[in-house]
Amino acid sequence: MEEEKKIMEETASEQASEQVVQEAAPQEASDKKDGGKKNKEKSGEKSKKKRVLNAIFLAVQILLVVLAITICLVMILNPKEPDQVSPLGLKLLPVRSSSMDGDKKDSFPKYSLVFATNPKNGGKDLKVGNIVTFVDQDANGQKFLNTHRIVAVEEHLQEDGTYLKSYQTQGDNNPLPDSIWKTPDQILAVYSFHIKGLGGAILWIREGYHFIFVIIIPLGLLFLYNIYLVAQIVLESKMRKAKALAAEKAKEAALASIDEEEIKRKAIEEYLRAQGLAAEQSEPQNKGDTE
């Protein structure tokens, strides 16, 4: 009987503990919910800042890559000689003066980047208004590329009976036309369009070691940063997998603990049931002995 009483006391104690846990569970769940909400808000703020920083870095990378490609194209499409253009169909010409800074739709200011193409039909079909590139010469006899607008076209009869065209050019910002007329074979390129400011940036970057400091070093740093990002992504993926594995093991351990408690509870119930049956069977015998 003492052993039965002891077991019943233990059962009552366990039930009281379970009741306390059940009463505390809602408050604990509420605290966890509030804490989870705060953590979620903090995580959202960090994620937003991270997205903004990534967007900025991506924009910088795109800008540097585009600028580097453009500069490389300028170097490839423009020989080092000041009086030559690329033999390819596209020419990229940085503008060094303001002679074409006019009020016309296709006028362009100093430091623009002009995109030009080869003249069709050997330059024989050009007309007034076309903007062309040709070799010019300064007062010191130094040759350089110049880009001006055709303002007059003339045809001259040759000894063989054919006509030869010649073009007079003038800068939109110049008060007088150029003194020397150009023949079709002297036209090296024909204007297509321009981008303001890009030519000046390219001219500056091409001087000295500017290209190394402005393009090469930043691209190298961004490359290292991208390697860091990839390593961080790989590390975070491994950490997520490790956390998932730990959570799975904890879940299995919790289930095993619950199963063990269930087995104990059933054993106690079986024992108490057996003790109850034994007590019921002994009662008639005790009654008979008393009579």
Which features does this protein show?
17% strand; Umud Fragment, subunit A; 291 residues; 57% helix; alpha+beta; six-stranded antiparallel sheet
Protein architecture, described:
The protein has 291 residues and is an alpha+beta fold. It has a domain of 129 residues: Umud Fragment, subunit A (Ribbon), CATH 2.10.109. Helix content is 57%, strand content 17%. It is built from three helices and six strands; from the N terminus they run H-E-E-E-E-E-E-H-H. Strand 4 and strand 5 form a beta hairpin. The two termini are 24 Å apart.
Please render the helix and strand layout as text.
Elements: H1 2-77, E1 90-94, E2 113-117, E3 131-137, E4 143-157, E5 163-170, E6 187-195, H2 198-206, H3 210-290
Antiparallel strand pairs: 1-2, 2-6, 3-4, 3-6, 4-5
Amount of beta strand: 15-25%
CATH-defined architecture of the domain at 78-206:
Ribbon
CATH class of the domain at 78-206: Mainly Beta
**Tally the helices: what do you get?**
3
Helix vs. strand class = alpha+beta
CATH topology of the domain at 78-206: Umud Fragment, subunit A
**Rg from Cα:** 45 Å
Distance between the termini: 24 Å
* Range of helix content: 55-70%
What ranges have pLDDT less than 50 throughout 5 or more consecutive residues? Answer: none
Integer average pLDDT = 79
Largest sheet: 6 strands, antiparallel
Spatial order of the strands in the main sheet?
A: 1-2-6-3-4-5
Please give the number of β-strands: 6
User: What are the secondary-structure elements, in order, as H or E?
Assistant: HEEEEEEHH
Q: Indicate the overall shape.
A: rod-shaped
